[in-house]
Design goal:
Elements: E1 2-5, E2 12-16, H1 27-39
Antiparallel strand pairs: 1-2
Length: 57
């Protein structure tokens, strides 16, 4: 499961399930979840956004 949360509030903005063979380094998955997360933000909050993807260990 891939989840995007708002750091300021801890609110979950987007979540999606992908097949078990998809890794966290898959660009398509990261773009999909971040696009869904940004779409949940009000337009005035979309001006300056800092996105961070955790590095898998």
């Amino acid at each position: 499961m891939f989840v995007a949360t708002c750091d300021n509030t801890g609110e979950q903005l987007a979540a999606t399930l992908h097949p078990g063979n998809v890794s966290a380094n898959d660009a398509e998955v990261n773009i999909d979840i971040l696009t869904r997360a940004v779409a949940q933000l009000p337009w005035w909050r979309r001006q300056k956004i800092l996105l961070a993807l955790p590095h898998p260990t």
